[in-house]
Every structure is written in C-alpha cells, then in structure tokens.
Amino acid sequence: MAAPKRSVKSPSAPRRGGLFGAPGELNSLFGEILDWMLAPLLFLWPISIAVTNHVANQIADQPYDQALSENVAAIVRLVKIDGNRVSVNFPAPARAMLRADEFDTLYYQVTGLRGELVAGDREIPWTEIPRDIGADEILFRDDSINGEEIRVAYSFLAVPPGRVPVLVQVAETRNKRGALASRIISGVLLPQFAIIPLAVILVYLGLSRGIAPLNRLQARIRSRRPGDLSPIPIRGVPEEMRPVILALNDMMQRLEENLQAQERFIADAAHQLKTPLTGLKMQTELALEETDPQQLREFVVRIAAATQRAAHLTSQLLMLARAEASHEKIHSVEPVDLEVLAKRVAEEWVPQAMAAGIDLGFEGTGWPLVIEGVPALLRELLNNLIDNAIKYTPRGGRVTVMTRAGTRALLEVEDNGIGIPEAERSRVFERFYRVLGTDADGSGLGLPIVREIADLHRADITLATPSGGQGTLVRLSFPRRRVELDAAAASG
Questions:
Q1: Which helix (H) or strand (E) holds 96?
Q2: The CATH number of the domain where 417 resides is what?
Q3: Same domain, 73 and 102
Q4: Which of 128, 124, 179 is nearest to 152 (CA)?
Q5: How many domains does the chain have?
Q6: How far apart are the first and last CA of the chain?
Q7: I need a surface site. Which of 29, 302, 335, 365 has the fewest CB within 10 A?
Q8: How many CA atoms lie within 13 Å of 200's alpha carbon, on the beta-carbon side?
Q9: Is there a single domain that holds both residue 357 and residue 487?
Q10: pTM of the model
C-alpha cells in the first residue's frame, strides 16, 4: 500500500391487552370500549352498595333517635337533686312510655352523685364524662348489652363541683332501625338489578351502532381490487378515523411511488443487462466463425472483458436490491468501528490502485469511531467510492480515504481526477446516469448504491471539489453511537 505516507490526524474535540383480558392480548376496539365503560360501573357498584347502606342506617336512626331523645328529656324532668340525694318520681304515664314493644327492648338508667344506680337497668354500660357538659345537651352512641347492639341516648345533669354528674340514659335495641334500613336499601338497590343489565344492553347497542361506520369502511376497503392503491375517499368517514385514513392514503401513495420506481428500475436493469449480453452473443458468434488463432484470441479477450462488465453490472444490481430490502434495514445492525473498516477496505484496494498507477492513501483519527450499521453494506459503500475514485483518476493521480471525528463520524474519499461538474452533482445519484464526456467503464450504479446505503444508515452525503481545485471529494456524515460519543466527551 502506498500509504499511509500522509500524516495521521488526531481527533477533533467534540417505538395491548384488554382490561379483562390477558396482558398483551389483542382485543377488538369494540371490546376495549365496552371494557372501559362497564368496568367502572362494576367497580363503583359495590361502593354504591356500601354508601347506600351507610346512608340508610343514618336515615333510619333519625326518627328513632328523636324518640330516644324525647324519652331522655322526659326522664331528666323527673329527676330531683336535693343536696346529696337524687330521686326520680315515675308516674304511671312515664313508666308506660318506657315499656318495650314487640320489636325492640327499651332500657333506661339514672345514676346518682357517686355513680350509683338510682333507677332503671344496671345493664346499660357506663360512659365517660365529657370535659364540657352542655345544659340540656343529649348525646348518642352505639353500644351493646349481652352481645346485642343497642342505640343509647344520654344526658348529664349539672351538679355542684367535686360531685359525679347525674347520668340519664335510655337505650333501645336496633331491630326496628335495621328493618327500616333494609327497606330503604331494598328500595334503592332492587331497581339497580334491572337498570344495570338494561344499561349494559343499551351500551352494547349504542357501541354497535357507533362502530357501524367502521364496518362499512372495512367492507369498502375489502372490496377494492388487489392492485388498487388509489386514495380511500374521506367522505362519510367518522371524524376520529380521518387521521388514520389520511395516514393510510399517504402510505399507499408512497407504496405506489415505490412500485413505480421498482418498475422503472426493472425496466432499466433489463435494458442495461441486454446491452452486454447482446455484445457477448455477437462476439461469441464471430469467434465461432474465426479460424485465425490470433484473431480468435482477440475475440476471447473481448468476450472475457464483456463478461467481466456484465458480472460487475449484475453484482451492483443485486447489491442495490439488497440495500433496498427491508430485512437489511431491520436486521444485522451492530456497532461498527468506521475507522477500522475504512482502513481495511483501503488496504484491499492497494493492488488495483498500484496496477492503475494511483497513489492510494489512508488518513485516520487514531481512535475508535463507532457507529451503528450493517458491516457488509458499509463495506460495499466504501468499495464503490474507492472504485469510482480510482476509475476516474488518471495514472499518476492520488486517492485518499479519510475518517474524522466530531459530533458525527465523517468518512471522506478524495481524488484529483476529472471531477464532477457542479451542474451534474444532483444527477449522479440517479440510477444508470453517467456524466457525459467520460470514457471510463461504468454502469451508473456506484453512487446510487452509495446513496441508498447512506440513507439506510441515516448518513448525509455531499459532493465537493477538493481544496486543490481538481477532482472530487465525497463526504459522508454518520450519527455516532451514543455510548461512544458520551465516552469521547468525558475523556475530552
């Protein structure tokens, strides 16, 4: 390798599962909406039952609490405090008021200044004395007697300081309250057992009617011919589906353009292959009729050269098809050291460069320059660039492959050959296009392949004239791998 006789430069500073389905399970849009409409309803229903039960108990307590409160007030009026003595005068009407009914048991209790029982039932539990006793204030609490729940209304009577306040309590079991609360709950919840299934049916029917336009749209799309890529009409499409249809139309337009480009490519490829094959056939027919050994040898040499051109053209067509294949764009992407790859490819071209009298050199950064890419395609990109540079550089010229580091990875191939006129630079990336006035052998596919591979790697490609004023400079700018870029920034 006639390299690297130029100095090596240092690096410069710097993409569902249903609510009731298994995770990842794909459900229909209808089922998804139905899930999200009914799930909150089913979730809130038990909460509604609990709240209804609480409210019903509060409502049931109100009338019976009022009765208990009146009983306590009546007994308070019968209590007399005379010095250290507390007494209760119970006339017959008062005792009748406190008798139990057929549903509940009624208890009452009056305690004296020392906490002793003055009148009533001892079973009612004692309660703590509040810090502030309000005049005629009646309080309520829930308690139990012998394991049976009771509702207690009670009041403290003011007494001289240092004495235990007189306590008047009236308690009642909760049977009537429970029965009233049950009737309230039944009256509220029983209609729900009819309303909820009806709501489910109405939601189902509403959703069925709501997605009917989607079913009609599906039928319209299914009825299209297989090759029909015309836009889907927007008229009559639900507003929510219009962005999807517009995106689908855009995709079909791009697909149509790709298919047309493929058809043009196939037609151009067939035409380009037909020319060397026709020449091969003609040369072979002439060689079969020739008897002079010297002339026969010349025909064989021409046949070999034509075969070489046809093989090269076929290889480039296959590489272009491979670069365009979607599986190449998805798989085989890995970290690639662009510096190492460029140096190795340049070394492989040294024999051809020496045979053509070209001085081929390499200038690198001296550091790893890692990008994400497909090694085979990047190698083909370099092969085409170096091949073009050697082919269009006269004997005695020079070609330099360079890598540079920055926020992006730069790959440059520079020559001092015939160059590309500025007016032609926008067209040399077209397939089968060749600059007029050049007598070098070529298929017009080298730079299109380079462009395709560069687009695949999200690289920018530009053509320029070298600083010497003669030749061509092809510069590609690749995104650097994030991990490698962060490491370079940290070391810098």
A1: helix 92-97
A2: 3.30.565.10
A3: yes
A4: 124
A5: 3
A6: 33
A7: 29
A8: 12
A9: yes
A10: 0.45
Q: Are 112 and 188 in contact (CB under 8 A)?
A: no
- Which amino acid makes up residue 458? R
DSSP letters along 19-81, please? SSS-TT----HHHHHHHHHHHHHHHHHHHHHHHHHHHHHHHHHHHHHHHHHHHHHHHHHHEEE
Cβ(403)–Cβ(342) below 8 Å: yes
DSSP 3-state of 312:
helix
Predicted local confidence at residue 119, as pLDDT: 87
Cα-Cα-Cα-Cα dihedral sign, residues 195, 201, 205, 211: positive
- Does 88 fall in a domain? yes
Both 100 and 147 in one domain: the answer is yes
Range 100-103, long-range pairs (CB < 8 A, 24+ positions)? 103/175, 103/176, 103/179
Rounded to whole angstroms, the maximal C-alpha distance in the chain is 158
Domain range for 356 is: 331-491
What amino acid is encoded at 399 in this protein?
V
Cis peptide bond N-terminal to 4, omega within 30: yes
User: Sign of dihedral through CA atoms 107, 112, 116, 118?
Assistant: negative
In 3D space, the residue among 21, 194, 47, 32 whose CA is nearest the CA of residue 202 turns out to be 194
Kindly state whether residues 339 and 468 are assigned to the same domain.
Answer: yes
Q: What is the β-pairing status of strands 139-145 and 79-82?
A: unpaired
pLDDT, one tens digit per residue, over 173-192 is: 888 888 888 888 888 877 87
CATH of the domain at 284: 1.10.287.130
- Which is it for strands 359-363 and 398-405: parallel, antiparallel or unpaired? parallel
Same domain, 159 and 282: no
Mean pLDDT for the chain overall: 78
A 10 A CB-CB count for 18 gives: 17
Of the spans 4-13, 90-99, 132-141, which averages the highest pLDDT? 132-141
- The more confidently predicted of residues 235 and 149 is 149
Q: Does one domain contain both 97 and 200?
A: yes
Residues 317 and 349 in one domain: no
Residue 232 lies in a domain: no
Pair 293, 245: CB distance under 8 Å:
no
The token pair at 201 is 């049916």
Give pLDDT tens digits for 245-293.
Answer: 888 888 888 888 777 767 766 665 665 566 667 777 777 877 787 778 8
Give the sheet arrangement for strand 117-120, strand by strand: 117-120, 106-111, 166-173, 148-157, 139-145
Q: Do 317 and 343 belong together in one domain?
A: no
Cα 76 to Cα 245: distance, rounded to the nearest angstrom: 81
